[in-house]
Amino acid sequence: MQCLLCHRQIREAWPLGSLILPQRKRISTTCAECLGTFHKIRLKTSCVGCGRHQGSKNLCQDCQKWQAKVNYHFVNHALYQYDATMKQYMHDYKFQGHYQLRHVFARVFSQFIAAQSKADYLVALPIDDQTWQTRGFNQVTGLLEDLQTIEILNMKRNADEKRQSQKKRHERLKTSNHFQIDVECPEQIKDKQILLLDDVYTTGRTLRHAAETLYAAGCRTVESITLCR
Amino acid sequence: MKTRNWKDEGIKTIKMPTMAVNESRVHCLRCNTWFVKSLVQLPRQEFYCPACIQLGRVTTLENFFTLKEPNQFKQLAHYLTWEGKLTESQLRCSKEVIHSFNHGRDHLLWAVTGAGKTEMLFPGINEALQAGKRVCLASPRVDVCLELFPRLQAAFKQVDIALLHGRQTEPYRYTQLTIATTHQLLRFYHAFDVLIIDEVDAFPYAQNKKLLYATTQAKKETGSCLFLTATPGEELLKKVRQKQLAVSYLPRRFHGFPLPEIQVKLVLNWYSKMYAQKLIRPLKKFIKNCQEVNRQFLIFVPHIKHLPFVLKAVAKIFPSLKITTVFSADEQRLEKVQAMRNHEIDGLITTTILERGVTFPGIDVCVLGADDDTFSSAALVQIAGRVGRSPKRPTGNVLFICAGLSRSVKRAIQQIKFVNRKAKEEEHAMSSVSPSDT
């Protein structure tokens, strides 16, 4: 198997026991050196509000501002730091559209979600129709291996509006809510715990829009997990 | 930039599919790579090609559009402004090349390292431009393209030349003469009447089926392709033997001397001896020879990890020598090469990155572990070709140190002997003609 990121051959040791006791060994898609260039976030040293990597567990400045602004409960956990290598990865995966690269993080991300979650339903953030046309895949559902999600959110963006990722910070914070609830769903999610899933938490604007929409539809709690922060 | 409206000019765009899908596999129509369906599937039964994604993704969501090459170029009074003179054999080769261009045939030009290939191309390019043909000069290496561009621009001062490579920031222009890396050829479809590929044997072109396919796609069906190389691989030679490819030899260097032949010294365990800081005898003799007459030298090693201890071992025995190491990821690579050119250092220890493209006049070369897999026969011939490049010292020493004669070492020795024999034959054939200016 070739490493998805550096294209070098991955040499793996097969334990002797696997000859005697046939066990399903997952073939790794990324070599250890490449995976080592991404930095995990540890719970002990990250903000409890958004999962940002910092020295302590306290609320970071951004989260304090959010707390003053909104009056509902919302917490995010993140798995990796959004640093230069991760940005490059996201560029290749999302914007260049290299769908195979989902395998780099799909397993760790899915396991992380399964371990954290006490929620009733998982909801992956949707993409709009135009992105479906050009990109051809939803980058979030790509990262989920066999987790069951429900599609209750729709996203509509004006054709001439910029994507979140192309905006400056203050522009992003001013964005209006593009999410709508699928009409058929409200009964199903009433009084339920929802876990939102996304690839990157940057300002938290998008995720909070989704959370607001879900709270308005009657969900009990909404939290989120992102691949990076 | 002025954009042209092709529709107004009555030229129709042709729509083509991007990928061909069959029952179990898909293949990309840009780079001709085949995939098992499930590996490259997007949701909703769409597919994409991960092989050529660096040039922008190819998916079944989109289509290719192409224009039939209109060859609408402004006629100039003069194309070639170069005023140098070609030697007898260069002239002969360029005539053969022009003949192939006119008949739409593929051609191989086997020219030894340092034969003056680029100059020899000028008449051929000139003729093609005059005939209103569209010409592209492609090379697998960016640095070669960057070096060729000013030379061609100087030779064809009136002609607008576009330079295409991965790091180019200028937008694409439609020009009669284009210089591009071979990867950029993937963007063209039936566009060029004349396609010249420099250093066909260089990485990554030689090993890359994608790029070979790109060449056949980029030239017109009636067009012709010229391959330039000092070390043709088996594929090309096979085509020559089957008479599918015309061939011209340029076996003599511009100064007329034969290529220095390779000397081989067999040493077992050069690796562990050098690692133990013992300088093996042939290498010691080689360096001593160089030191006595104050001559610069290059030492090639198979791998980056060999560099530090080889340097240490040499520096231990010859503390007065100024030597250093160069490798691909070296930040001071260009400075060190420049220092070597300025005679500020006596020698470089390096990997295959200096195998081609660089010229230090009058040096000697030694290859440690020439039987290693990293040295292909093409690489070895190129390395041997670093020697004897200046008319002042047209000879020199090429020393290979290896544990045994590998196939590529043998083949490299044979190739050099072969071209030297060719050179002699040519000399005999032209003995009535006075030798050209050297």
Automatic annotation (TrEMBL), chain A:
Gene3D superfamilies reported in the protein's UniProt record: 3.40.50.2020
Molecular function as annotated in GO: glycosyltransferase activity
Lineage top rank: taxon: Bacteria
Keywords from the UniProt entry: Glycosyltransferase, Transferase
InterPro entries attached to this UniProt entry: ComF/GntX_DNA_util-trans, PRTase-like, PRTase_dom
Stretches assigned to the Phosphoribosyltransferase domain: 176-228
Family label: Belongs to the ComF/GntX family.
Name used for this protein in its record: Amidophosphoribosyltransferase-like protein
TrEMBL record, chain B:
Helicase C-terminal domain ranges (all copies): 282-434
Keywords per UniProt: ATP-binding, DNA-binding, Nucleotide-binding
UniProt keyword annotation of RNA-binding present: no
Listed Pfam families: DEAD, Helicase_C
Domain Helicase ATP-binding stretches: 98-250
Protein name as annotated: Competence protein ComFA
Organism: Pediococcus ethanolidurans
